[in-house]
Automatic annotation (TrEMBL):
InterPro entries: AB_hydrolase_1, AB_hydrolase_fold, Epox_hydrolase-like. It comes from Brassica campestris. Pathway: Secondary metabolite biosynthesis; terpenoid biosynthesis. Belongs to the AB hydrolase superfamily. Epoxide hydrolase family. Keywords: Hydrolase. Epoxide hydrolase involved in the biosynthesis of cucurbitacin and mogroside tetracyclic triterpene natural products (e.g. siamenoside I and mogrosides IV, V and VI). Cucurbitacins have cytotoxic properties and exhibit deterrent taste as a defense barrier against herbivores. Mogrosides are nonsugar highly oxygenated compounds used as high-intensity zero-calorie sweeteners; they also possess pharmacological properties such as regulating immunity, lowering blood sugar and lipid levels, protecting the liver, and acting as antioxidants and antitumor agents. This is soluble epoxide hydrolase. The keyword Hydrolase applies. Pfam families: Abhydrolase_1. It catalyses: (24S)-24,25-epoxycucurbitadienol + H2O = (24R)-24,25-dihydroxycucurbitadienol; an epoxide + H2O = an ethanediol. Its EC number is 3.3.2.10. One of its GO terms (molecular function) is epoxide hydrolase activity. It is an enzyme of class 3 (hydrolase). It comes from the Eukaryota.
Amino acid sequence: MEKIEHTTISTNGINLHVASIGSGPAILFLHGFPDLWYSWRRQLLSLADLGYRAIAPDLRGYGDSDSPPSHESYTVLHVVGDLVGLLDSLGVDRVFLVGHDWGAIVAWWMCMIRPDRVKALVNTSVVFNPRNPSVKPVDAFKALFGEDYYICRFQEPGEIEEDFAQVDTKKLINRFFTSRNPRPPCIPKSLGFRGLPDPPALPAWLTEEDVSFYAEKFSQKGFTGGLNYYRAMNLSWELTAPWAGLQIKVPVKFIVGDLDITYNIPGTKEYIHEGGLKKHVPFLQEVVVMEGVGHFLQQEKPDEVTDHIYSFFSKF
């Protein structure tokens, strides 16, 4: 870990903290919620050893990167803009891209908006869903799962932060990372995250040191920056109307765990395996479903995920 270099890059009006290691073709890793560059720590080291320049920023709102105060500054256009500026600052023209969770959503949109900057994509957890011109995304989730669905609960500024503040940060991180329940996460206001049972003992893939790293960063920064991505979902929907109907036209490999909540959303398995995803991502070359694996697959099965990334990118 001490071999990983840490720098601050000015881009798109903010400063991003960037972890990187190695030399060779560049791979850009994008994390999700509630996560940091640190989620890719094992991939950074392994892929640097395999001859790549591995780069993982804390996205805006996270860790040691800047956190603009307004949720309106967290649309996918803002974040893609950050990444284009980051690549320009690093002198990287085209990059291999890897995303997870919110990072996967951003990666899909980067491939949509700036395919000229992406050689190939390995995306994980969250499939590409084309923009529905008639329903805003938060409204769609509310209709599907009700107001207690976590994305709906995250919408009101300050409300969920107050709930989180009543839970020890280490326990909260543990709950997020170790959940094995593939059902849609619905948290009634009367219960809140504070009312959930204590998480089980840490699994072998997540150490006390790992949890402490996350807890320290989120205790310093708070969760508002990460939550603002959810609060900007409907605004992102409005602003991305000009790209409605476009396909993702870069080579893609998609990986998901069979216990991931995203894979178990009604209709998702059929969409992935019966041609729906391929219709919108015509250069989709591989789909991998990892058995017995949850949402944070790059941490749960780091060597397997690294092998999947390397086997795909080494073709290009």
